[in-house]
Amino acid sequence: MGGFEGHLYPGLSLFFYGLYHARLVSRALICNYPVQYLPRRPWSKGRWARLQQIYCVGLAKILSSFILVAQELHNIQGQFVLISKIYHERNFLYHKQWQHLTLYTTFFLSGCVDVVSQNLLPQRSPALEQGAQALGMFLILPLMVSHLQDSEGVELRCHVLLIQALFLLLLVVIAELWAPNVRQLWVMKAFLYMIIGSWLIQIGFMLYKPISGHKWMDDDKNDILFVTIFFCWHVASLAILMIWIYGVSFLWYCYIC
To answer: Can you give the pTM of this predicted structure?
Structure first.
């Protein structure tokens, strides 16, 4: 996730995934559904009718993974290898890029599991999807911790706050494996996905394209302190967005639909 685009595209993917879960949990709360993922309806006859019933979430994950990998490889200068072979030396190269590609692989595998569960199995298996999601988060968290190496100042503070949200999300998705029908976990999961995605986008702007036009300074304590303040404002804004989504969903399901 190097550079502005390397933070923007993953952030958008996670943010929209959080919006998707916010819509699901709003529908479940308003319509009083006992489960978050409704059972799949029997396949309709006819090619076009079946195409309309295909779940696209897993396909969107797979597509976004390919886009992220292509963007990462495009930004690499020179030959992309794992280990250098200069004389007797064997040094690992491009450690940041390999971290990013490993992160994107978890998205891809989670998307594959979603496609199989939602479209290929005789019955949808939410436990399988949640397990793949928890495994992906379990892999992402240590990768992000190692990503802090060589970071300092504003960049370090931004990523520490990101890891805090990732750790909370990991706890939520693990708890969801044993308590899949607890609605509070559904709300927290959607909320944290939106926080992580939007904060990644914000990190891209802060580090590479500051809106004010003035670069954030690593040796300025005020800049580092304001990173935390902006994160708190960020969380509060997304809480308001969650309430707005619930309100719109309430109007839709109760008065329009």
So the answer is: 0.87
What's at 157, amino acid-wise? R
> Are 40 and 50 a contacting pair, CB within 8 Å?
no
Rounded CA gap, 244 and 205, in Å?
A: 25
Structure tokens at 230: 């902006």
Over range 18-29, report the average pLDDT.
Answer: 87
CA distance 108 to 103: 9
**C-alpha to C-alpha distance for 161 and 104, rounded to whole angstroms:** 21
Environment class of 118 (CB within 10 Å of its CB; exposed 0-12, middle 13-18, buried 19+): buried
Could you tell me if 90 and 28 are in contact, meaning their C-beta atoms sit under 8 angstroms apart? Answer: no
Q: Which amino acid would we find at residue 73?
A: L
CA 10 to chain centre: 7
Question: CB atoms < 10 A from the CB of 182, how many?
Answer: 14
Cα–Cα distance, 207 to 17 (Å, whole number): 24
Residue 123: φ, ψ to 5°: -130, 140
The DSSP secondary-structure symbol of 91 reads -
Q: Does position 71 have pLDDT exceeding 60, yes or no?
A: yes
Residue type, position 244, single letter: W
Residues 69 and 101 sit within 8 Å (Cβ to Cβ): yes
Rounded distance between C-alpha atoms, residue 191 and residue 187, angstroms: 6
Average pLDDT over residues 205-216: 80
pLDDT over 70 (residue 87): no
Cα–Cα separations (whole angstroms), residue 2 to 47, 49, 109, 133, 241 = 42, 42, 22, 24, 28
Comparing CA positions, the residue from 146, 16, 6, 138 lying closest to residue 69 is: 6
Find the largest Cα–Cα distance for the chain. 73
